[in-house]
Amino acid sequence: MGVLDLDEIEARSRLAASLRPSAFPGTAGELTEVALEQHAPPDVLEALDTLPRTIRYVNVQQLWEALGGERERRDTGGAAPAEDDIAVEPDVTEPIDTEIAIELELEAEDARTAVAPPASAATEVGDEPWWMGPARTGFGLATLPLRVTVNVLRFAAERLRR
To answer: Using 50, 70 and 90 to split pLDDT, how confident is the model at 114?
Structure first.
């Protein structure tokens, strides 16, 4: 469970390579059009044709699972959890339930990003404050004309010395 064999990994890779990231979220029809533009192999096109046309897929992983692929789990390196500790994910089988779940997930994500800084901005002991990255970027942009001018003058001085 959670370990893909080489054929499944290859099939998932062909699916992902046949769809550019900007195609998501998209319905099966929209994704089929993108796959045709990307010259997808026939097995990918056939798989996309089996999907319901009303569901919007958010990413390749969701599409892979809708096609019957298994979610890959990574080994955490720790001891195996007891059966009582294993969380069972709910099995959503109705297309409308899947659509609602996706919309709720997207709304929750939008709400989290609107209120809190991104997770990558969290600080740890010894890290710089979350605002240091944007401040560094702003400083770099503000000093860009000066740095360009200095480099042009250095280049001109180098050429004049020759």
So the answer is: low
